[in-house]
Amino acid sequence: MSRKGSRKNPARPGHKFFFSDEAPVKTDTSEVTTKIIVGDNESEGRYTILSDLWKVGFSVQPHYHARHFETFYLVSGEAEWSVNGEAHRLKAGDAVYIPANTPHSARTIGEKPAHFILIYSHGDYEAHLEREASYTDAERNDPEIKKMLRKLNDFNPI
Predict the structure, then answer these.
(1) Other C-beta atoms within 10 Å of 16: how many?
(2) What are the φ/ψ torsions at residue 24 (nearest 5 degrees)?
(3) Whose CA, among 25, 74, 150, 152, lies 20 to 30 Å from 131?
(4) What pLDDT is recorded for position 77?
């Protein structure tokens, strides 16, 4: 029996099973591995659901999203989140919801990676990952390209 989800109407996505060992890796760097669980097309642009594995020592600088909200559910590991000036240590089973225009930052804690399920709305996170992947590490660190990507990806550093 095939493990692939079926689709009844190609113009309108149907149900989908997600098997982590078969999911394509969208990002795989020294800091983060990202897999798409439910993509922009499947949710008809409403949201993206991702599996994010943050490696030991990974951190996200303080920033906000003007047009997007995020929910992070911690599957394993530990992380520290600061949201709108309020900091908390999260462990497996904890979650954080971050509305648009809310300053936030995060970092892994301890000697194990932090595995999150991320719900990102509105659903254009795949486009964000594809834009990022179209540049080399050196290009992504170029100040002009970095500025352009941040604007397109609604990532606003504080």
Answers:
(1) 13
(2) -70, 140
(3) 74
(4) 98
Distance, in Å, from the CA atom of 140 to the CA atom of 109, rounded to the nearest integer, reads 26
The pLDDT tens digits for 89-118 are: 999 999 999 999 999 999 999 999 999 999
CA distance 26 to 53: 12
Q: How many CB atoms lie within 10 A of CB 133?
A: 12
- What pLDDT score does 12 carry? 60
Cα 104 to Cα 115: distance, rounded to the nearest angstrom: 18
Task: Report residue 64 as tokens.
Answer: 């906000």
Report pLDDT for 8. 45
Averaged confidence pLDDT in the chain:
89
C-beta contacts of 25-30 below 8 A and 24+ residues apart: 26/50, 26/126, 26/129, 26/130, 26/133, 27/129, 27/132, 27/133, 30/55
In order of their start, the domains of the chain are: 25-157 (2.60.120.10)
- Model pTM score: 0.85
Would you say 68 and 120 are in contact if contact means Cβ atoms under 8 Å apart? yes
Whether 42 and 117 have beta carbons less than 8 Å apart is answered as no
111's tokens: 């000697």
